[in-house]
Specification:
This protein has 628 residues and is an alpha/beta fold. Among the domains are: 185-254, Alpha-Beta Complex (Oligo-1,6-glucosidase, domain 2), CATH 3.90.400.10; 549-627, Immunoglobulin-like (Sandwich), CATH 2.60.40.1180. The structure holds alpha-D-glucopyranose (GLC) (2 copies).
């Protein structure tokens, strides 16, 4: 075993040799970062590729790529790098607020996004996720998740120079730019895919291509079908009869990360985007990047090793850049991606799904259990808490957690699916099924927040239910993320059914164009849009002013009433106690629940003083943020 000092010397010698000729002398800042992080990159890279004869050659290529990217990195980004290195918790602030939108649907093009910056500031955004905006196949692109070139913006949206200047303008406005790194797969029109199809061996090795069904059949025994409406299993047939791995749509081909050239190529794309000025990369479909026969091919150990290696790439050359994990999988697996060395941010699909679960059942037990048991993560990392995303809602809670509460998971998922697609009598929700799989009984749900919450069906409590769902996402910590348009209550858009490219994918029902009419009403207190918007503004303003809501520390609170969710957010000098009645009837929290608290508390949202020495009644769907 080498000592750490010996390892560092060996790493330094390796880097020096790789950079010996055209890169010398190495910039001292880069040299310092290489000293600190190259040993980590080396460790992870060799863990995955060490048994290949070309491992060290490919690693030397990667080192040169890092040095080139550093040489091209703009000075203002280098200043940002240093500032964020000195303040690594910058994104844990209670002032962080995310928004997400499609460039075309929300603003036409990138210039349109720029013209919306005043509104983003009005709302208080500090984080803007622009949905995939890269060159993609004209018709089938899975909403941009089939990328044909990571270095080109889709022509209808603008170009890279515009994206770069938009990133700079957003930064001036205090807004971090988030884009996807769709690194599990490319589109079948990407140059790498085209060259693979043409039979160039170098590029064939970028994908997982098999001559016949032998290996595909073997893998398919244990993998999950993600888009069964599109194709069965995980492979699609090429025109020449061969089979290519394709987890998602048939035009999205999975990259072969067993090939270090693929890692290096994607590191190059990653650093290109970092140098355009992207602050956070949403790491798409992280669970799927490594495949191993006889396994589910999801969340395998090498997926983590590769992410850590990519993270080290950033720490060396673009240290201001963070990763957000998109792992919509079992909660035990979701948390495995979260660490300062891997993904500093992660979607919180469990809290999202259980918020809807609580609203359907009018019972907060499962959500409350999840908050107590599954909310704690590394204090240097953050959940991205959202009410819904551009994707479907899947019921990703753990069967064993449900069983502890006497809930049969399979039956409960059937109920939730039925409830949210309005097949359950009396449901307030107007969702649409997504990828119902008759072979497995699996299904997920599409729909906008407002339509799922009852605004479309005309349910009286709908606006309050929408606010309640956001009040949870805005008070459990991390970075709350609003799907733009939901803050004015946008409804489902059934127009997708008339578009042959979208009709087969119900997720388009909840990706409507920017609801201009509702935005126009946002300051009219008599409209639904105005009611929701005013409530959202209040939640956001109070959150910004409340230090306890920074970070992610959360302590459970037993309300003695299953219809009322409770939790505390401890701060330096007190705590915020959140109570939320998820039912549509008034509910009591008995005085005994507050026995450890002072006699009165102020609700930060209404500024009303509340006595805690008596039973506390919450109106239907009422929520309180009590300073205690
Ligand atoms: C992610 C995206 C989803 C897309 C899939 C394939 O899950 O969120 O929209 O279909 O990846 O890229
Ligand atoms: C994600 C998920 C899957 C989700 C899909 C997008 O990566 O794992 O459950 O529904 O892609 O719809």
């Amino acid at each position: 075993m080498l000592t750490l000092a010996q390892q560092a010397r060996a790493a330094r010698a390796f880097v020096d040799a790789a950079l010996a000729t055209e890169h010398a002398p190495v910039d001292p800042v880069l040299a310092g970062r290489l000293d600190a992080h190259f040993p980590i990159l080396f460790e992870h890279y060799s863990a995955v590729y060490g048994d290949r004869a070309d491992c060290l050659d490919r690693l030397a290529d990667l080192v040169r790529l890092l040095a080139d990217a550093w040489a091209e990195r703009a000075d203002d980004l280098k200043v940002l790098d240093a500032a964020r290195e000195a303040d690594p918790g910058w994104f844990l602030s209670n002032r962080m607020l995310g928004g997400v939108c499609y460039v075309d649907r929300y603003a036409g093009d990138l210039e349109g996004v720029r013209s919306r910056i005043p509104y983003f500031k009005e709302l208080g955004l500090t984080y803007l996720h622009l949905m995939p905006l890269f060159a993609a196949p004209e018709r089938n692109s899975d909403g941009g998740y089939a990328v044909s070139s990571y270095r080109e913006v889709a022509p209808a949206l603008g170009d890279m120079a515009t994206l770069q200047s938009l990133a700079a303008d957003l930064r001036v406005a205090g807004i971090s730019l988030v884009v996807d790194l769709i690194f599990n797969h490319t589109s079948n029109e990407h140059a790498w895919a085209q060259r693979a199809l043409a039979g160039e061996p170098e590029y064939e090795a970028y994908y997982r291509i098999f001559p016949d069904r032998t290996m595909p059949d073997a893998y398919d025994k244990t993998t999950r079908e993600i888009f069964p409406d599109d194709h069965r299993g995980s492979f699609v047939q090429l025109p020449d009869g061969r089979w290519v791995w394709s987890t998602f749509y048939s035009f999205q081909w999975d990259l072969n990360y067993a090939n270090p050239a693929v890692f290096n190529a994607m590191a190059g794309e990653l650093l290109f985007l970092a140098n355009v000025g992207v602050d956070i990369l949403r790491m798409d479909a992280v669970a799927f990047i490594w495949k191993e026969l006889g396994t589910s091919c999801e969340s395998l150990p090498q997926a983590h090793t590769l992410l850590r290696a990519f993270n080290a790439v950033c720490r060396i050359t673009a240290p201001s850049v963070l990763f957000k994990s998109e792992a919509i999988v079992h909660p035990d697996e979701v948390v495995q991606y979260i660490s300062p060395e891997e993904c500093q941010l992660s979607y919180n699909p469990l809290q999202m799904a259980l918020t809807w679960e609580a609203l359907a059942t009018r019972d907060a037990s499962l959500l409350s259990q999840a908050l107590e048991r599954r909310h704690a993560i590394d204090p240097g990392c953050a959940w991205v808490n959202y009410v819904r995303s551009h994707d479907d809602i899947g019921w990703t809670f753990a069967d064993e957690d449900a069983a502890e509460l006497g809930v049969d998971a399979a039956a409960h998922r059937r109920f939730l699916n039925a409830f949210y697609v309005n097949r359950f009598p009396g449901s307030f929700a107007r969702g649409v099924p997504f990828q119902e799989n008759p072979r497995t009984g699996d299904a997920r749900v599409s729909g906008t927040t407002a339509s799922l919450a009852g605004l479309e069906s005309g349910e009286p409590g709908a606006a309050q239910r929408i606010l309640l769902a956001h009040a949870i996402a805005l008070s459990t910590g991390g970075v709350p993320l609003v799907y733009l348009g939901d803050e004015v209550g946008q409804l489902n858009d059934y127009g997708y059914l008339a578009d042959p490219d979208h009709a087969g994918d119900s997720r388009w029902v909840h990706r409507p164009p920017r609801p201009a009419d509702r935005y126009a009403e946002r300051n009219d207190p008599d409209s639904d849009a105005g009611t929701i918007y005013r409530g959202m503004r209040r939640l956001i303003a109070v959150r910004r002013a409340t230090d306890e809501l920074a970070g992610g520390a959360l302590v459970g609170f037993h309300t003695h009433n299953p219809h009322v969710l409770g939790y505390q957010r401890p701060g330096a000098s007190g705590a915020v106690l959140v109570l939320a009645n998820v039912s549509d009837a008034p509910q009591l929290v008995p005085a005994e629940a507050f026995s450890a608290l002072p006699a009165t508390a102020v609700d930060l949202l209404t500024e009303a003083e509340t006595s805690l020495w008596a039973d506390l009644e919450l109106a239907p769907l009422e929520f309180l943020w009590l300073q205690v």
